[in-house]
Amino acid sequence: MSYIFNINLPRTGSSSLTRALNILNFPSVHAHYRNTKLQDIISKNNKFGNNMFDNLPKEIVGFSDFGGHKVYKELYRQYPLSKYIFTYRDYETWKESYLALRKTLHPENFITKKDHDNETEKAYKHYFLNTTNIRSFFQDKQEQYLEVDICNGEGWDRLCNFLNVDIPLTSFPLVNTRDEMILFTQTRGIKS
Q1: What is the pTM of this model?
Q2: Is a pLDDT exceeding 50 seen at residue 105?
Q3: C-alpha–C-alpha distance, residues 11 and 139, integer Å
């Protein structure tokens, strides 16, 4: 079976990519399928010796925000004919957005300046280790691999060329943006 996997880090445009894939008629899901986390589906399939995305409807072909940056090697082993998209953004803007998300989900990790510095150091290692390893792994698999910086304006041209489909007559979708994340954190009473 051939799929499209977004092997992204968080806060790199995965929601926008999922919406774009759906516009292009590649039925895709983001983080969940019918109120079940994709990561839980993967864990259950692993427990029973199945491939990661077994037991899902065959018409779903795109998957985003399931921890793909952690399991891309195994994904490739299980689905060698699939397409792999690495959504990324420059480190500084990613760090701001990622730390705002972490602060929302885990405010206890940001009580002191030392805590904040520790989270920033972890973010730095997380970003560069994953980015370097993913690029290295797919270096000789370029026909199956696309890097796209949605947050910096890349979109239909690169994606449609990679998937060999026509560019639609609509703007590239931008959802769950940094501004939306800031508004979300403010409504939860968390300073970003």
Answers
A1: 0.88
A2: yes
A3: 23
